[in-house]
Design goal:
about 80 residues, single chain, little secondary structure
């Protein structure tokens, strides 16, 4: 019976790909490998995001945003 396994793995400096097959023991298998290298994703650190809103400050007014929202939502969920 042909089985298909899809996995994402990291290949280290040794160039070895390890594929665990715990359900198969003491058996011969035929393996076909089709691979595609995944693009490296750039990790963004929290420190790099510091100050990105400096040119667009958040303005808090004293008019009561909650009261204003409640008026607009009145009857909305009846």
């Amino acid at each position: 019976m042909m089985q298909t396994i899809k996995l994402e793995s990291h290949i280290g400096n040794d160039g070895m790909l390890h594929i665990p097959l715990p359900e198969i023991k003491d058996a011969d298998v035929e393996v076909i490998i089709v691979y595609q290298q995944t693009p490296k994703t750039q990790k963004v650190s929290l420190a790099s995001l510091y100050g990105i809103c400096a040119d667009d400050p958040i303005i808090i007014d004293n008019e009561g945003v909650v009261d204003n929202l409640e008026e607009k939502l009145e009857g909305m969920f009846d």
